[in-house]
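call fold target=AIR synthase
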Amino acid sequence: MSVDVPFLTGAPRAPLAGAGPVPVPYLVHEADAAEVQAYRVLRRETFVEEQGLFEGHDLDDLDLDARTVVLVARALDGTVLGGVRLAPATPDTDLGWWTGSRLVVARSARGQLGIGPALVQAACAHAEARGVLRFEATVQPAAERMFARLGWERLGETTVAGVTHARLRWPIGRIQRASDAAKAHLEALLDPFGGWVNAHPLSLGGPDYVGDDGAPVPGTDVIAACDAILPAMVERDPEWAGWCAILVNLNDISAMGATPVGVLDSLGARDASFARRILSGLREATEAWGVPVLGGHTQLGVPASLSVTALGRTDSPVRGGGARAGHAVTVTADLSGGWRRGYDGSQWDSSSGRSGQELRALGALVPTARPAAAKDISMAGLVGTIGMMAEASGVGAELSVADIPRPGASGMADWLTCFPGFGMVTADAPGASRMPGMPGVVAAAGSSSRTAAAGHPPLAASAECGTMTHQRGVRLRWPDGELTTVVESTVTGLGRA
């Protein structure tokens, strides 16, 4: 990543008497090997020789960590004018917690070119582009005001090389933005004046199921769920859209503790050929899950659209709002597969490589385990879904980042905000969850339940990785015990079920 920092156009003017050298353009970018060495020379000149913070050198373990990134400000003639490094704060596994350090600017370039702020801003942008969720730095008192102007938040003080430093954090709102984009509009759309809730006692699922994945059909043991696929996705990848329309609806039925009995579809397409492509994905999915298409509606000569309604049966639905403060949060997800081509970081495809028998076994996990509360991980992402469960239950949630089951090919930020194919969030009394012990499910780190049978690849990984709390919103707990708030309050605004 490069950041061009140009100055005003026009021929350079001779400096005024007593003024410093004429400002020069520079580029902030990721350093190559030679530039890393030049950056280390600047560090030695500044921190060892000028400030006397270290003896001999200031090199440490981060300089040996292959994951460390060095950004430098380079003049047009190749001179390195300054630099900064950033790296994961945890050894071995990158959890999305990074630190920035060793910010340095050459003495001859200080105070006139804005190099320090440019490097800090570039480091923040680089960290967010890498999917960092927690980015912190310790800075000397002289630099704290600059960081504050750039938007950093003060956490406290610490000591580095015998000198007091300020502990600062760059606010990263990726999870909040993802949650808001997916669900924050529901309150205004569904209940601007109390009309929907007051229209009928069973509106929006009734008092026990507001905001749930499905709704009980009054007077029956039937659960109904309905989801639409983004029109852009239908247009771009119609077969995949057809498959996903079944996947997401049957996940909803499963999260309600029900067994699917059939689906109905409604699709629009520009012509018959395009409609057949959508229907081929629908047919392949319904055959895999073993559910019939009971009926539907098709219209040609219109923009691409697709929605599916799924029906299931259970005499005792599992509520999304059944969690209580003190309940343990369990995440169960199929970690097989990989990012769907063209949807890196947003759609994890764990389902298209599974057999029909495996897909049906995954769908039976929640109906068999019967947790106190369950929701399938939707487009709001893992954290947003937990936020919806907490909201419907009238509580909040804390998640231990290190204990969340996650595929090795996904960064933490992507995994917490993506659609994971098959993923369930459940809540039970601590130690009472049956999800990690279900057949074919492997107990992930942080869970003591038994693993899948030897010789059989696991259907999913599961672990207790959080707690429902009395404090609203969702917070992440990091290995050092620090809590960061990632969802401030409610997700949908629909309130407690």
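return ok
The first helix runs from residue 33 to 50. The chain has 13 helices and 23 strands.
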